Amino acid sequence: MSTLYLFSGLPGSGKSTVARILADDEEAVRLAPDDWLQALAHDVRDREARRAMRELHWQHAQELLAQDVSVILEFGFPTRAERDEKRERARQLGVRVELWFLDDDHDLLWSRVERRNVSGAPGAVPVERETFVAWTAEFEAPDADELALYDGDQETA
Question: According to CATH, what is the number of the domain 3-147?
Answer without folding.
Answer: 3.40.50.300
